Amino acid sequence: MTSEFNVHSAAGYEQLMGRWSRRLAPLFIDFTGVADGERILDLGCGSGSLTFALVKAADVVEIDAVDYSPVFVEEVIRRNTNPRIKVRQADACALPFERGAFDRALALLVLHFVPEAGKAVAEMRRVVRPGGAVAATVWDHLGGMPGMRMMVDTVAALGESGRELRRRFCFQPMMQPGELRRTFAEQGLVDIAEMELMIRMDYQDFADYWAPIAAGEGPLGKYVAALDAAERARTDAAVRDAYEAGRPDGPRSFANVAWACRGKVP
């Protein structure tokens, strides 16, 4: 298994994270330095946030979009109308491409869900030509994602299972300061640069925030889906209270920070 992200439906993922991935993708593309005429690998393409942003950002020759989840692969195929975009299912730790096949390999919000993230970075390096680039970005779950920390801190206050969820959530691979840079260096990449990228997550109301999690999408949704009826009711009420924060239900906005790192293949 090379992905710990659970997805039930593309629409559910879109409400949970896809809409925010689309906001992050242009910032990440600017950071990576994508140029006209390149062949690019989009590793862990999800529902296509980066894939479809790339063809708007540059006159690329080809984008190979791959994901471990057949749900995501089917969704990108369904949405795609551009002949320069090729889509297939693939394992991040055993990519089905020849050495040096790409000018650039990119991973948007992927590596923290790959248990062997270092092996995935090694594979990204392998399939990029000498002088080409590898780049990735991941959310800062511990200190840069207050909207989601609001939920995990709330359930952590309710019991031990919530505290265990928080331990997993806050310390997934690649999320600590400098961790991406160290991993890139360990895999032999050079001229490494990193920075923080920030967007905002804007919700219309509590239902807009909670619906995809309540439906079981993503790691937080997986936790909620495993609760019994009484625990579920207590969790729903406690997270709603945290979201509303003593004010009537309605719009809320949360800043979100991601770590971004790029390196060159020597």
CATH superfamily assignment?
Vaccinia Virus protein VP39
Radius of gyration: 19 Å
State the CATH architecture: 3-Layer(aba) Sandwich
Structural class: alpha/beta
What is the helix tally?
Answer: 10
As a percent range, the share of strand residues is 15-25%
In which order are the strands of the major sheet placed?
3-2-1-4-5-7-6
- Unreliable stretches, pLDDT < 50, 5 or more residues? none
This entry's quaternary arrangement is single chain
Broad CATH class? Alpha Beta
CATH topology: Rossmann fold
The first-to-last residue Cα distance is 30 Å
Biggest beta sheet attributes: 7 strands, mixed
Describe this structure in words.
The structure is a single chain. With 266 residues, the protein is an alpha/beta fold. The chain has a single domain (10-264), classed as Vaccinia Virus protein VP39 (Rossmann fold), CATH 3.40.50.150. It is built from ten helices and seven strands. Helix 1 (10-32) packs across helix 8 and helix 5 crosses helix 10. The longest helix has 23 residues, at 10-32. The protein is globular and about 55 Å long. The model has no long low-confidence stretch (mean pLDDT 94).
Keyword list:
Rossmann fold; 266 residues; globular; 10 helices; alpha/beta
Short description:
With 266 residues, this protein is of the alpha/beta class.
What is this structure's SSE topology?
Elements: H1 10-32, E1 39-43, H2 49-57, E2 62-67, H3 70-79, E3 85-89, E4 102-108, H4 117-126, E5 128-139, H5 146-156, H6 160-170, H7 179-186, E6 190-203, H8 206-214, H9 218-225, H10 229-244, E7 252-264
Parallel strand pairs: 1-2, 1-4, 2-3, 4-5
Antiparallel strand pairs: 5-7, 6-7
Helix pairs in contact: 1-2, 1-8, 5-6, 5-10
